[in-house]
Structures are given as structure tokens and as C-alpha cells.
Fold:
Amino acid sequence: MINFLVKYSKSEGLKELLVHPTLEEAVSEQFYYERNNYDDDLVVVALQADSLETLMKTHSRFFWVNYACK
Structure:
């Protein structure tokens, strides 16, 4: 499985997609952002999937493009 950390802006869409060697590291970084994030627009989640393609299918809301905000 691949361990992803997704940083997502509710108003702008995907901000950053990182890959971590372990799920524990991804979750640790997620917790760090939850404790230190003061931006209500930013969502940070740790996810696991067998491929990026699977992640994009199962969590498609993180990969949409909001052209109205561009």
C-alpha cells in the first residue's frame, strides 16, 4: 500500500499530495497540521491506497478542479 498525505483547500482544490514510507509517518504529519493549522479552508488527511489511480477514484473530491476560483 502507498501512504499519502493530502493537503486540500476547500475553495481551491488540491494543494499538495505527499507520499510517506509508512502510514504512521503520514498520520503523524496529519496530526501536526491539525494541531498547528489555523486555516479553516485547509483539510489535511492521511490515506492509504494501492495506487494513485485508486486514491483518485475513492477520494475524487480531493482531485476536482474548481475553475470558478481560478
